[in-house]
Design a protein that fits this description.
This protein is of the alpha/beta class. Helix content is 33%, strand content 19%.
Length: 464
């Protein structure tokens, strides 16, 4: 029986309940190999089967000669694997029970007490309840904002925002925060701006993360980079030069409602949390990285509102993508580079997502991305494949980085799919990475970004 928390505020007593956290007990993670075009087609057909929408989750979509990671509900494992055998599609089991992996992740979260203000976690029924005052292991409130609480950990949205504000206060000569708007549920979408203040405008480096809620390594990596820029601003010559030359504007959590939901209820939630109501279908959320106004709805999407790749009823139907677009357009003349962090697959993606035809400056963008990927590999040996989604994965339209280049006019526009390369056995399973992976991810990505900027400077193009 779920525990109830009764809170009395003045003369008003509130009884608080919450959704029980989904455990994923018995869910199996498998990896199929699409060895030919027929395999790709058959897997795509299975992906679109309506009766499988809530039973199978394609962590990596079908593409030729690539592993296709899929999370299967317990009641369809036998039927689905039989179908793969029928289609002669080879597969292997990566995780017999993903729920056990999540139990370990939940235990790590509880030890860190990464909880927002006024929420309590009760391990007995895996639930969170509002209106609680929790103390962290360091003695402060669970919504505290020290770097020890946030950097190198999978922090909650409110904690991230509090930390950004505290860093802007601590480094007030070079840093400031700003809300670019609120999410559907009213959460502040906060950016931090880092740069030496000058009388003239400087080129802007924009980085966002967490457009897809379940990709926790993305916001955590960006937080690590923010911390690196701030801490190195006084005594690191390279970093000092970077903040002297550029203004860095970073949005660690581009989908705060979905991100919070992935912590409290469904670890593998991907979309926004806006309500859906199309005819008799009532499914929550939109894929925000299909919701931008660039070739909207043309490829890599599903018209089923319950699908993970549902783009919405129209471009910018989501307030979160709208907030991002308005802010970027307002500053687009000064933005030199747009970059968006996702996970996973270890890819450095270049425009375009919707077509294999490259932009006119595609060769330059690829060359610079290859330099960044090479520098990234030198840190921890991680290889990032470079190319456009349509060429090395599959076509997908309505993405943020395509829009940033085509509509906002930002010359250098990239998407990074962070570690791991693929799901494996053990503790590394796609979206579920131990927090020990955050620092090396930050180190390698930051090295890649620095090399990209060095190459942009050498190309003589410091205007987006």
């Amino acid at each position: 029986m779920g525990r109830l928390i009764i809170c009395c505020l003045g003369f008003v007593c509130l009884v608080c309940c919450s959704e029980v956290k989904k455990t994923y007990n018995g869910y199996k993670l498998i990896q199929a190999l699409a060895k030919n075009k027929d395999h790709v087609t058959k897997l795509e057909m299975l992906e679109q089967e309506e009766w499988l929408l809530n039973k199978i989750d394609f962590w990596k979509r079908p593409s030729l000669n690539a592993g296709v990671d899929m999370l299967l509900a317990p009641d369809i494992v036998e039927m689905f694997t039989d179908k793969l055998k029928e289609y002669q599609i080879p597969y292997r089991v990566l995780q017999e029970d993903i729920g056990k992996l999540l139990e370990a992740e939940n235990a790590r979260e509880r030890r860190q007490l990464i909880l927002p203000n006024r929420w309590c976690y009760y391990p007995k029924n895996h639930s969170y309840y509002k209106f609680c005052n929790v103390k962290s292991s360091t003695g402060g409130s669970a919504g505290g904002s020290t770097s020890r609480d946030v950097v190198g950990k999978y922090a909650r949205h409110s904690q991230i925002n509090s930390w950004l504000d505290s860093q802007a206060t601590q480094y007030s000569s070079i840093a400031s925060t700003q809300s670019i708007g609120k999410s559907y549920e009213g959460k502040e979408m906060k950016v931090i701006k880092i740069g030496t203040r000058k009388s003239t405008k400087k080129p802007i480096i924009w980085i966002d993360a967490g457009i897809h809620a379940r990709e926790w390594i993305a916001p955590a990596t960006l937080i690590w980079i923010i911390n690196k820029l701030l801490q190195g601003s006084q005594n690191d010559r390279t970093i000092k030069a970077l903040i002297d030359k550029y203004d860095w504007i970073m949005l660690p959590c581009a989908n705060p409602d979905g991100y919070e939901f992935s912590h409290t209820v469904d670890r593998f939630w991907r979309k926004t949390r806006s309500p859906g109501n199309i005819g008799s279908v009532n499914c929550i959320g939109v894929d925000p990285n299909r919701n931008f106004d660039d070739h909207f709805g043309e490829s890599g999407v599903s018209r089923n509102p319950c699908s993970l790749t549902y783009p919405g009823t129209k471009a910018f139907s989501e307030i979160e993508t709208n907030n991002m677009a308005k802010f970027i357009l307002k500053n687009s003349k000064d933005i030199l580079m747009y970059m968006s962090f996702h996970a996973y697959s270890q890819l450095w993606l270049t425009p375009w997502g919707y077509t294999k035809t490259p932009p006119r400056d595609g060769a330059l963008l690829d060359r610079i991305a290859l330099a960044g990927a090479k520098a990234l590999k030198q840190i921890n040996g991680k290889y990032f494949k470079v190319g456009s989604p349509a060429k090395i994965l599959y076509a997908a339209s309505g993405g943020s980085f395509d829009w940033a280049k085509s509509k906002a006019g930002i010359k250098y526009s990239y998407t990074l799919e962070l570690r791991p390369d693929s799901s494996t056995g053990g503790v590394n399973a796609g979206f579920v990475l131990p927090s020990s992976e955050i620092q090396p991810s930050g180190e390698e990505v930051f090295a890649g970004i620095k090399e990209v900027l060095r190459n942009i400077e050498q190309s003589g193009s410091l205007i987006g």
